[in-house]
Amino acid sequence: MITSIAWKNVWRNKTRSLVVIFAVIFGMFGGIFSSAVMTGMVELRIKKALQNEVPHILIRHKDFVANKELKYYINNADSIIEIVKGVEGVKNCSRRTDIIAMANTAKAASGVMVFGVDTMLEKKVCMLYKTICDTCGNYLTKSNQIVIGKRLASKIKAKVKSKIVLTLQSTDGNLTGGVFRVAGIFETKNAAFDEGNVYLLNSSLCNLINFDENNAHEISVMIKNLEELDNIQASIKAKLPNNYEVVTWKQLQPETAGMSDMMDVMLYITIGIILLALGFGIINTMLMAVLERVKELGMLMAIGMNKLKVFKMIMFETIMLTLTGGAIGLIVTYFIVLYYGHVGLDLGFLGNGYEAFGFDSVINPKLDGEFYFVVTILVILTGVLASIYPALKALKLNPVEAIRADN
Length: 407
Known about the structure:
The protein has helices at 2-10, 14-53, 64-67, 77-85, 119-125, 150-155, 191-196, 202-209, 229-239, 249-252, 254-292, 294-302, 307-343, 353-356, 369-395, 399-404, and strands at 57-61, 90-104, 109-117, 132-137, 145-149, 163-169, 175-186, 197-201, 218-223, 244-248, 345-346, 362-363. A hairpin with a 4-residue loop joins strand 2 (90-104) and strand 3 (109-117). The strands form two sheets. A six-stranded mixed beta barrel has the order 2-3-8-5-7-6. The protein has a two-stranded antiparallel sheet with strand order 11-12. It has two domains: 2-49 and 256-404, no CATH class; 55-252, no CATH class. The protein contains 16 helices and twelve strands. Helices cover 56% and strands 19% of the residues. It starts with a helix and ends with a helix. Helix 2 runs antiparallel to helix 11 and helix 13 (307-343) packs antiparallel against helix 15 (369-395). By secondary structure, the protein is of the alpha+beta class.
């Protein structure tokens, strides 16, 4: 009985009730959809980083990262690869030779990190070759070829088949150089990565710097299940000499790895702030409703409705308003997120700022079902908390004075 009366009371002033309901709907949409966009951005950033920029696990000499000197290498890399492949959970491995160089064209120059790769092995652990579009050339096939990023190509005024001179230091400490033709131009949507990295055939780079092809500066490892990342890292580390370090992608790019945990916190903070604002709005609306019905509430109490029932009635009215708006908002937002999660949300109109931080301008919003469940609980909690003060205000009414009140 109390619930049916409360529901009828909600619609006695349709305009006010609809304003509250739409406020909750738009609040839910704004909070959840923005959360879905942020989640999609982070997941896509991590996915792209693992596909194109960093391996799941990297093996290197423990002194190489600090000094970047050619002498800190992995001796007999093939034997190390065989050991690593024997670890359960490892899918593929690839070897690389790394060196810092200066890339020069007739018009400009830029510092780059040069990676010498084995094409067949590299394609098994890195999807960078897939970022070369149909009109941007091909991946490495010949000894005199180089693959560069779109950002670097723009900076040094290079294009497919352009000549690039690499100036670098050989193993004997002397400067050396080589001329290469651009075979392809990749684009990962990470401006810093595209500008700072170039790729050669490992044999070409080793010949240029007089480096033994049997050795390598790093071994990239792809695993079958990322959830087993830490366990596989420990297993590989246990099988290798102490002068080699085994690091995960989270250690290579801690800022990217930290985005996921940070985003979880940000999502709930965002929703919390929105619900807090909505809560105050609902409290204000229900207080107005109570003050407009002073005489009515006084009469109800005078004819025998006890204070508990009055309290419940006001609470139910508030909760019904909140749940109606919350339910509609959740359902509408769910399908909008589902739609844009499939077709993608193009944020290219905001400019290229996203690429400077490694984000793609086309986002696929995404949220786990758990998040919707938590938001539903928070909406219910907001309705309950927002109903307490107006309901308590109604309890303080004196029936005799309320009946005499002039609303």
